[in-house]
Every structure is written in C-alpha cells, then in structure tokens.
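Have a close read of this protein, sequence plus structure tokens, and explain what the tokens say about the fold. Thanks in advance:
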Amino acid sequence: MSYVALKMIHITCVVLSYLLFTVRGVWMVQSSDLLQRRWVRIIPHVIDTVLLTSAIGLAVTLHQSPIKDPWLGAKVAGLVLYIGLGMIALKHGKTRKIKVSALIAAHIVFFYIVLVALTKSPLSL
C-alpha cells in the first residue's frame, strides 16, 4: 500500500476515533443508555485496530521507530496515557467527577498527540 493511502487511512481513523470518543463521552456525562448498545462497544475497537495498523505501516514505510525518533516515542507514550484515561472516563471511573476529569484529561492528551504528529517534536506544547 502506498504511503499516501496509509496516511489517509490513518488520519481518517484518527478523526473517526476521536469523534466517537467524544460522542461516547457526552453520552457518559448524560448517563445515556446508548453507551450499552452493541455497536458502540464494537466499532471503536475496529476503528482503533485499523488506526494502529496504519500507524505501524507508516512507521515501517518511513523506517521510523519510537526508540530512534523521540517524537514518535512521545506519540506512543501519549497514546498509552490517552487509552488509560479513556478507560477511566468511559468505564472504570468510580465517581462521575473522576470520569469527567479523566475525559477532559484524555482530550488534552489527544491534542498533544496531534501536535506532536504535526510538528514532529515531543515538546509541542
């Protein structure tokens, strides 16, 4: 697959993943039953699998590594933090306050990851 195609798939999945995370966050704040729908529990995993696969494909195509390229390491570390915060926000937070705080923090981390991707610098703040 070409670099351009991989990049477009990656960016599309980033947008879809973020939009769906945002919608799920709104539903969590509203205590909506929509969070329990089967497709809401499955589709994010499908999108995120394609997202991660395209990211690995891009790294291999460009001969990049999180160890060799600090900005890519920062993205990976940010991704791990984003996933953890998302899990707290949508599922494992004990109180509403913890869930909302984790949701806000996850959005901040997401934008950090995007800034790192755009600037190719781990110090994008």
